[in-house]
Specification:
Elements: H1 2-12, E1 16-17, E2 24-25, E3 30-31, E4 36-37, E5 42-44, E6 48-49, E7 54-55, E8 60-62, E9 65-66, E10 71-72, E11 76-78, E12 81-82, E13 87-88, E14 93-94, E15 99-100, E16 105-108, E17 111-117, E18 122-125, E19 128-134, E20 139-140, E21 145-147, E22 157-159, E23 164-165, E24 170-172, E25 175-177, E26 182-183, E27 188-189, E28 198-200, E29 205-206
Parallel strand pairs: 1-4, 2-5, 3-6, 4-7, 5-8, 6-9, 7-10, 8-11, 9-12, 11-14, 12-15, 13-16, 14-17, 15-17, 16-18, 17-19, 19-22, 20-23, 21-24, 22-25, 23-26, 24-27, 26-28
Antiparallel strand pairs: 28-29
Length: 230
């Protein structure tokens, strides 16, 4: 009965709840007019959903801030901030401390924790980004992880504006990938990458640098360009 009363109140206030029978909204939640809540969605704690946002279907959000016109289908969101026009999911997991700026994206089967994505940054799918800063318009390829935990301490990864992280890269924190830099597919980055530099191999070395052993032991072709995904 309480669920029905809460949902009716929000619908009369201008919120679109497409299937009230499967939608759960705690009394502590705030919804702006013209947002849409899809079936199977649970909103709890101090969650706020702004106008134009579409949450669900089948999304759980607790203590989340979902900005105007954001899209959050089939995802689990806890203690995260999703900026205007940002896209999350489907099947994404945003953990405590995640903050997505305007137009950022965390896509299918990606997980973030204590990560900040600048405007237009993308983690499209199949990646883990924890204790990290991702610069504006940077692209993090599928299968990439920030190796933030050494068994004792958690360390930070910084990815600069416009950087291109190749698929299946491992960024071993603490590490910085400079603005406009690139990592080749499968690179294991154990030291800082300078702005505009391209690194490949295991461990990653600058591409084409005279005397470089980039790719040694990994079977990589050191002349191969980085590969990623969007």
């Amino acid at each position: 009965m309480l669920r029905d009363r809460i949902n009716r109140q929000w619908m009369l206030s201008g919120v679109s709840i497409t299937d009230p029978a499967t939608t759960y909204v705690e009394v502590s939640v705030l919804l702006e007019p013209d947002c849409t809540i899809e079936p199977g969605t649970s909103l709890t704690g101090a969650t706020i959903v702004h106008s134009g946002a579409r949450v669900g279907p089948h999304t759980t959000a607790h203590d989340a801030h979902i900005g105007p016109s954001a899209q959050v289908p089939h995802s689990w969101i806890v203690g995260a901030e999703i900026g205007p026009g940002a896209v999350v999911g489907p099947f994404a997991h945003l953990r405590q401390g995640t903050a997505l700026a305007e137009g950022a994206k965390v896509g299918s089967f990606a997980e973030t924790k204590n990560a900040r994505l600048a405007p237009g940054a993308k983690v499209p799918h199949l990646s883990y980004v924890g204790d990290a800063e991702v610069g504006a318009r940077a692209n993090v390829g599928a299968g990439t992880i920030t190796a933030n935990y050494d068994g004792v301490n958690k360390s930070k990864t910084v990815i600069g504006d416009g950087a291109f992280i190749g698929s299946n890269s491992v960024l071993v924190a603490p590490v910085t990938v400079g603005a406009g830099a690139k990592t080749g597919a499968g690179a294991v980055v154990t030291r800082d990458v300078q702005p505009g530099e391209t690194v490949v191999g295991v461990p990653a070395r600058p591409l084409g640098k005279p005397g470089s052993d980039a790719g040694a032991g990994s079977g990589d072709d050191t002349t191969e360009a980085p590969h990623s995904s969007k």
